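DM from R.C. (forwarded with permission)

"hey, sorry to bug you on a friday — could you get me a structure for this? deadline for the figure draft is monday and I only need the backbone to look sensible"
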Amino acid sequence: MAIQKKPKAQPPVSKNDAVENFINSAPDAKVPASKGVVKGKKQQITITMDPELIQRIDEAAAENGQSRAAFINMSCINILDYGLQIAGKKKISE
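My reply, with the result:
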């Protein structure tokens, strides 16, 4: 049998620290991981849309000289700041 070193003594842990460690090690105590991929200051997410809706978004974005992502971001900001229009459909000028 090989000679082993004496294990290092653990510093005494207070009862409050032991309780905190126990609570924080529970599976539901962890902070949920954010979804998506962080790219710089933004976070990439994945959504699914109807192909016809994507085509309409692309057309509207092109008319405004924007990318699809910029148009979707702008639309979300406008809805959050000014509210959602439920009834009616705005005609795009030709």
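R.C.: lifesaver. Residues 35-87 form one domain.
me: no worries. The beta strands are 37-39, 42-44.
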